[in-house]
What we know:
Elements: H1 2-14, H2 17-25, E1 36-38, E2 41-45, E3 55-59, H3 64-70, H4 82-179
Antiparallel strand pairs: 1-2, 2-3
Amino acid sequence: MAKTAIAYKEKMKEISVLSFICSCLYPETPKNTSTHTHADMAIKPINKRASGQAFEVILKPSSPVSDATHCVTTPPKRDVSLEDIQKKLEAAEERRRSQEAQVLRALAEKRDHEREVLLKAMEENSNFSRMAEEKLQVKMEHIEENRQAYLAAIMERLQERERHAQEVRRNKELREEVTA
């Protein structure tokens, strides 16, 4: 099969692409037969179709001289001993164990990675909670300070009014005493 494909490729190189296409589009069939022959290749048109023409390329068998040069002999099979079979089985078992160990290592690494990711997420969550609590504590202290300052300002104003009221009362009593 490989020889046929190689011969076909070589012949396709030899034939001019233009003449090959022209022969497909405008076939000039000889009057005696419908098969065109080139060196060791025959082109035989099949029936015409609506979509175009179809043809069959037939390669002639290569010469017997070339068959002898391409003939490859298979090496003789050697007898397989019980030791060889045993060694192959042991090697296969070792490969299987190695592959299982590799899979287990990969799973262990994946578990460790997942554990690290979970620990990191928990630590970040803890840090976030702590920071939020600290912010809330600072905010509450600030609110308490503002409230205390507001109450102190109100008390100061009340005391100021009270002093002013006492002064006004005293002035009124003094006026009444003076006018009386």
